[in-house]
Design a protein that fits this description.
Elements (H helix, E strand, L loop, with lengths): L20 H4 L14 E5 L13 E6 L24 E3 L2 E3 L6 H6 L3 H11 L1 H8 L17 H6 L1 H15 L2 H7 L7 E4 L2 E5 H14 L7 E10 L2 E14 L2 E19 L2 E13 L5 H4 L17 E8 L2 E5 L2 H7 L4 H13 L21
Parallel strand pairs: 5-10
Antiparallel strand pairs: 1-2, 3-4, 5-6, 7-8, 8-9, 9-10, 11-12
Amino acid sequence: MIRATVLFTSTSILVAGMLTPAALSQCCGAPKTAATTTESASVSPAGSGSPAALAVLAASMASVGAEPVNKVCPIKGNEVDKKSPTRLFKGVTIGFCCPGCEGKWDKKTDEEKMALLAKHAPEAVTAINAPAALAPAYIGQDNRVGAGTLQSNPALAAARGYLAACAKADAAALNALFLDNGRATVSENASDEGTWETYRDHHLLPELKEMPDFTMTLTKEDMQTFGTTTIVRHIGSFTVPDPNHKELTKKYLAAVTYVVVDEGGTQKIAHLHWSSRPERKAEPTVQAAGKTVNEICPMTGDKVNEFHTREFNGLTVGFCDGDCALRWGGLTEEVRTKKLADAIAGTTAKTPHGAQPDDGHHHEHK
């Protein structure tokens, strides 16, 4: 789940044969599909074909948002143009007078945004302050789809339920959200991770052990519906303990995209894409641990993920994911020394996760 870069790079999407060229033409007044907010990064749902084929991502796919609650642009003070991009802020849709204003809006703090709305669009402040109770399972905070939409769209509840189940590391609750028997697939930073079951056992659950009380704070929530398929995107951040300095934390920016399909009247996640990267602002206390001495994981030979590190004999050792970092802890010092030397030299053989017969420690996924 924790890997570098939050960019969605693909430029096409396949949603169980339900998307037409018109549905993909979102620029310059082309036909647009019904949606809840202004932007959506999308992936294809489970269906026929290989898992890799199902992990096609779409970038910069604009959608028609809910009607803006404000009549005047909070940036320039001009009349809102409904054809301009919008932003979801504290549960309401904010409109702008022209393209470009939304970018300036994104750079403002919440306090600055509220001040601008109070000056130019007090009706938006009234809408924001109106009570709108959300489902208990939802752990996000701001810029969210309102309670009415949650009640009318169970696909959104499924996506929110995923974050809530992650917060509790509740495997049973997570399983209930996905298509079963290998029919759901997962991508991570545009890399195919296979089925949900494989991702759950080799990535998600081991990493949640390293992130007790994981909570993702949302800054944006998008939703698009195509027939019986709904695409939901969550963008936000989370903070986790530094594994080498328990008194410190690291902040990560993240985006999760869900493809939710109808199965017998129940909304199930058919494909999930997780993407995250460390916050780029300077954090000297966190960076004091230093750069990893290895560029490839000593357990699998895969590229090191800077989030997963361990201190060993005064050196910072990097791993490709939390599963490898956990298994490293069960090795003898002699085996660690040999594996680290190979990793530094770049000679570690590519090995599937959980298949290191010579490491003296066998980690079973449950």
